[in-house]
Design brief:
Distance between the termini: 99 Å
Helix content: 10-25%
Strand order of the largest sheet: 3-2-5-6
Number of strands: 9
CATH class of one domain: Mainly Beta
Largest sheet: 4 strands, antiparallel
Order of helices and strands: HHEEEEEEEEEHH
Shape: elongated
Number of helices: 4
Radius of gyration: 29 Å
CATH architecture of one domain: Sandwich
Structural class: alpha+beta
Length: 184
């Protein structure tokens, strides 16, 4: 039988290793659970016009620094899933014809209801919008032009100018990538 003897240096190394394991275990157990479950909250709310309390459709809701967002439905409701607990900056609530709104919120449970959010109308300053067909696009079809007043645009404003014009008689919107424009 061989007897093993431990040296003072081995005892010190073993003691340091045991202390290190104890410290790591203590830190892991005392860490708040929201760090372990980083993305588990849901954010909901409703967006309305402050002018007439009507629900706003197609409002963009964006969470800054997380590249996640949503858009409101016909009733002004939105929902964003898989958010981390803690302080968040909602990058903005934005809709053409309304002033962008930013909120700082603190999510401390799995469901956060922001309730009713009001957006203030913002006057867009333009006299009219002209939509014209370019003859080089399709020479076999008849050409036409269309004009709408700034006042009518403001009254019928949707999420974008294209969405607003889409409901006008004789206008069909088709997107084929980035548009081109001339600066005057």
């Amino acid at each position: 039988m061989v007897a093993m003897q431990t040296t003072p240096q081995q005892i010190t190394s073993q003691s340091l290793l045991n202390k290190l394991i104890l410290i790591i275990t203590f830190c892991a157990c005392s860490m708040p659970t929201h760090y372990l479950h980083a993305q588990n909250a849901k954010l909901i709310g409703k967006v309305f016009s402050s002018q007439n309390s009507e629900p706003l459709e197609d409002v963009n809701v964006y969470v800054k620094n997380y590249n996640i967002g949503s858009a409101t439905d016909l009733n002004g409701q939105f929902s964003i899933n898989n958010l981390p607990l803690g302080n968040l900056e909602l990058g903005k609530f934005s809709l053409l014809g309304y002033r962008d709104t930013t909120l700082l919120i603190s999510i401390d449970n799995s469901l956060m209801d922001l309730g009713k959010i009001l957006l203030d109308p913002e006057v867009l300053h333009f006299e009219e919008i002209k939509v014209e067909v370019h003859s080089d696009l399709d020479p076999t079809s008849s050409l036409s032009s269309f004009s709408i007043s700034g006042k009518k645009m403001q009254e019928n404003m949707k999420g974008s100018i294209a969405q607003t014009l889409q409901n006008e008689m004789g206008i069909a919107i088709q997107s084929m990538g980035q548009g081109q424009h001339d600066l005057y």
